[in-house]
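Explain this one:

_____
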Amino acid sequence: LAEKKVLIVYAHQSAGSFSAAAKEAAVEVLKSKDCSVEVSDLYAMKFKATATAEDITGEVKNSEHFRYAEETKLAWDEGRLSADITEEQRKLQEADLIIFQFPMYWFTVPAILKGWFDRVLTLGFAYTKEKRYSNGIFKKTKALLSFTTGSQETMFSPTGINGDMNVTLWPLQNGILHYCGFQVLAPQIFWAPEDATPEGRSAMLAAWSTRLVWVWEVSHLCLWTAHIHSRN
């Protein structure tokens, strides 16, 4: 079997965080399974979060009415995207699985990770009008959200005060990842690790490690899209 390649897009500022521990656990387990693992540590990279004309080398087509999608499509066609974007696109194209590791901020991803989505998933490279969802460009690539919350699981239930977590994740899992064709795996949610005991946090990491041991063998059984469609 060919070596599997994994990209971890990591968005946390502290090496002492639970997110860091989850990222390190993933690296350890996946390497033990003979995967090659690459980590994009967005804060360490000082990754630019804003999608601007600076992402294009050379002249833009219409400076009077700058439209990011159209301008970056043209720049991608001509090899004029900025180096940090093309490097992330290279990593993404080579990956069989991409894991996004982050703390949930205001019911979504941190701004630096949203910037990664905005800037890396350019028109032409990641999607076109003809190639979206099940016919998407990345339909052979798996994607998985792995994140921490500040709230307990009961608060994110359909009757909880925060609402249904599936609704919260819909823009990320369907509107971004599945839109680009990714096979979206069920999310790995670490419920309020800050409130857990040391033993509880260790158990969370152990469950994550166990899941990753079998991620290639059973991932077809835990596609998030299949789960959502089965509920409707």
